Amino acid sequence: MSTTLQRSSERLRPRLLPGWQLEPAREAWAAVAARVPRVPVAVSWPWTVTWLAHYGDVTSPFWVVVDDERGPCAVALVTRTTIRRGPFAIRCLHLGTAGEPPGESVCVEHNALLCDPARAPEAAGTLAELLAGMPDWDELRIDGTGDDQLARAVAAAIPRSRLEVDRRPLAVHDLRAGRERPVVDALRAGPRRRVRASLRRFAEIGPLAVDAPADGVAASAVLSELADLHQRRWTAAGAAGAYASPRFRGFHHALAEQLVPQGRAVVLRVRAGARTVGCLSLLIDGDRALFVQSGLERFDDHRLRPGLVAHVVAMEHLRERGCGCYDFLAGEHRYKRELATGEETLSWSTVQRPRVRLRLLRFARAVRDRWRRSRGA
Q: Fewer CB atoms < 10 Å away: N or C end of the chain?
């Protein structure tokens, strides 16, 4: 049974649902989605319920539904995890599909509170008051959001709390500009020269082409090739690779099989003749293509740049499909800067309660950082 918390000052009423109550949560999600002009893919029901199927057993999820006089006006998935930091166990809450074990995260970005825009400030305040009133957590983490409104509201509701906001840049390529010319023409001089040279060399292997299956099963087969290429490169470098996690691999396969037929995801294979250059997976969020992962073939000729070429060819393909922005998501990588025409930001916010263990950890971190700076001086 859900728990309803009464608030005397406003008409909005929050209620909690256990994580296993999928049908009431789905009904609330659908009701809120009907009041939202565009539901971000990372807070869509297919994304959320697929994530729960793969990570729900390791994150202790529950749902928060906020009702007004018309019914549900906001809904959120919240997860509980415990993180070890030195000698301390830190109890965390996470908004949305986050809180996975280390090395297995889907790294949610463009995360949000699914909410009727007309109710956004009130709903955020109601959710903040509810979360602040739960005493059994030390940190609240809100990953990859366009603003820090909810985090600030929670911090304001908890005396002596601490708010940290990490704003990270996103490299983006505006596909709307210069539609009459090739994508490569919009790049800066150095990257443009390198991409053009590599395009010519790949064309000597065979004509460049894109395979973009619209069927979920066929897309999943291309994703398997992507995962194999990805793992081959990372393991050769002595790293585990994202697809080493069965949870991560299973989540992305299940998601592709659902979202590709709906036009909300794309899995591409870029070829030079019969030879694969690279495979890319992307989410489609309105007219924005969100780059998720890649798997690139290795070539003996180091003048061939499969990553740059695969992205440029994918951009051309997605522009023809109506996409207006190619979003590389967060992460400092040279190829993202080279292929971008602009930059945006997302926020990773953390609210900390006034706990002694957290103060001790901050003190230890400050001492460590000072020692490292002195060693580097």
A: C
Task: Give the bridge partners for 200, in sequence order.
Answer: none
With 0-12 CB in 10 A as exposed, 13-18 as middle and 19+ as buried, what is 192? middle
As for how many domains the chain has, the answer is 2
Question: How many whole angstroms separate alpha carbon 28 and alpha carbon 40?
Answer: 16
pTM over 0.90: yes
Instruction: Return d(Cα 105, Cα 103) in angstroms, integer.
Output: 6
Domain that holds residue 141: 3-170+346-376
Q: Are 329 and 291 in contact (CB under 8 A)?
A: yes
Position 133 scores a pLDDT of: 95
CA distances from 156 to 94, 122, 217, 322, 372 (A): 18, 14, 48, 42, 34
30 and 154 part of one domain? yes
What span, in angstroms and rounded, lies between the C-alpha atoms of 338 and 106?
A: 25
Residues 278 and 350 in one domain: no
Q: In this structure, what is the dihedral angle of CA atoms 276, 278, 283, 287, given to the nearest 10 degrees?
A: -90
Pick the most confident of 2-6, 104-108, 368-372.
104-108
